[in-house]
Amino acid sequence: MQRVKRYYDLVDLGDVDGLVDLFAEEAVYSRPGYPLLHGKKSIRIFYREQRVIRFGSHELTSIVARSPNVAVQGRFVGTLKNGDSVHAGFADFFDVGADGRITRRDTYFFTPLV
């Protein structure tokens, strides 16, 4: 659970190298609107080049851990690279390996789409 909490701290600080280090070498990240990310290299490229968020902060409202899984619910408030403000609820599901590194992350956003 501590590694997952640390992940959000590092994202909010913009510490890409630090947050990528939390993942296993062959980790998988699934995020709406993006192709499935495979491996630390793809995750690093996403955070450095493809992520549409300029900056923001995560407020975690619920964390449930049952080894090897961690579920997180919260709200994100920030600014996109195009200058627009964003306020979104989210849920993340993490799988954590025996070494404590994140092996999979699945993200879901609560926004009106239909």
Give your account of this protein's structure.
The chain has a single domain (2-110), classed as Nuclear Transport Factor 2, Chain: A. Strand 4 and strand 5 form a beta hairpin. It has a six-stranded mixed beta sheet. It has helices at 2-13, 16-21, 39-50, and strands at residues 23-30, 37-38, 53-66, 69-80, 85-96, 102-110. It has 114 residues and is of the alpha+beta class.
Reconstruct the topology from this structure.
Elements: H1 2-13, H2 16-21, E1 23-30, E2 37-38, H3 39-50, E3 53-66, E4 69-80, E5 85-96, E6 102-110
Parallel strand pairs: 1-6
Antiparallel strand pairs: 1-2, 3-4, 4-5, 5-6
What distinguishing features does this structure have?
114 residues, alpha+beta, Nuclear Transport Factor 2, Chain: A, 6-stranded mixed beta sheet, 3 helices, 6 strands, 50% strand, globular
- The percent range for helix content is 25-40%
Q: Unreliable runs, pLDDT <50, ≥5 residues?
A: none
Number of strands: 6
Q: What is the oligomeric state here?
A: single chain
Provide the residue-averaged pLDDT. 94
CATH class descriptor? Alpha Beta
Strand order of the largest sheet: 2-1-6-5-4-3
Task: Give the tally of structural domains.
Answer: 1
CATH architectural arrangement = Roll
Measured between the Cα atoms of the first and last residue, the distance is 33 Å
**β content, as a range?**
over 45%
CATH topology: Nuclear Transport Factor 2, Chain: A
Work out the helix count: 3
Q: Rough shape?
A: globular
Order of SSEs, N→C? Answer: HHEEHEEEE
Radius of gyration: 13 Å
